[in-house]
Amino acid sequence: MARTKSSQQAQRAARREANVREGMQALAQWLRDLVRGGIGAEEIRCPETWKAISERLWDAQAQGVARQLTAIGSMVQREPDWTPRLLEAIGRLHLLAEGYARLDELPPDQQADLRTAVGFTERQADLLQQDGTHDLWLALGRRSELNEEGLLMQRTWLLGLQTGKMALLLDYAHPMALGKSLDRSFPPATWLQTACVYFPSAYPLRALAKSRQSVAASPTDLPHAHQTLRAALAAYADALSANPWLERFPMLVAQLVPFYENGALALVDSNGDALPITTLEPMSLARLIAVSGGAPITIFGEYDGRAFLPLSAFAQERLVLL
After folding, report:
1. Contact (Cβ atoms closer than 8 angstroms) between residue 214 and residue 185
2. If you ran DSSP here, which 8-state letter would residue 278 be given?
């Protein structure tokens, strides 16, 4: 019976692999046709264009690519100046399609990133059998939002106070599912001595915490912060060169001052370099400005390559959630 079940699982895996490869080949041809027709073509602005190719990738069981295509279609409809972002997005998709066609030639960690971007997942039970990275983990920030599938996605970012490693805990729940909610353990401003097991990647970030029952944190300082924005952006560039499909990068930067520039809020470091931030809710904005009071503070948040989303600030031995 066990051998039959194993054989059936292998057959399903082989069928999905064949479907995904066929879908990625179709995507590569579609991208070539799109560029050949010019990005000013009227069909690019048509929602049905993106819906059709997204559904094609869903049918091919390449859910990760389908989500990207849906997001690109929404961006084209939503943003007035969408051309630069479209060029970047289709370039990344082309790299993904070409990389997947040469999957067997790549190192295992790069294979893992490609497969994750396409939509394959790892068995969490298998990962938890590993030892992981032991540390005192401080929960720096949390963000919840709906993804393209209508699922509520929660990101919890951890900092290993000894190792300096960042770890991302992901949790999902359907907003309408009864009895199923997001895991609210390990909230921000708490810490726990535990092990985090990272998912395979050329730049590991996503992880599983072996224990999540944390206690209130009382750090006297916040180590491992970048001292300048240039150093933080250099770290982002290194991460992106290792894994080009990173959507969000955790950034912990010291000596930042919130500053209004041309009517928009930015963060300015000791060199005078500025980093724009995404629009914050009024309460979060007021809290950030109050914590700083015009003085430099340490700020943690997510960077998407264009703007920074602050999630917490550290000042006077206190971590404040934004």
Report:
1. yes
2. P
Q: How far apart are the C-alpha atoms of 237 and 230, rounded to whole Å?
A: 10
Which whole-number Å values give the CA distances from 205 to 41, 240, 282, in the listed order? 38, 12, 30
Q: What is the pLDDT of residues 41-79, one digit of tens each?
A: 888 888 899 999 999 999 999 999 999 999 999 999 888
According to DSSP, the residues that pair with 192 across neighbouring strands are 137
Tokens standing for 2? Answer: 């066990």
Do residues 277 and 266 lie in contact, with contact meaning Cβ atoms separated by under 8 Å?
yes
Give 123-147 pLDDT, tens digit per residue: 999 999 999 999 999 999 999 988 7
Nearest to 135 by CA among 59, 224, 227: 224
Collapsing DSSP to helix, strand or coil, 234 comes out as: helix
What residues does each domain of the chain span? 2-118, 124-216, 229-321
CA angle 240, 245, 247 (to 5 degrees): 90
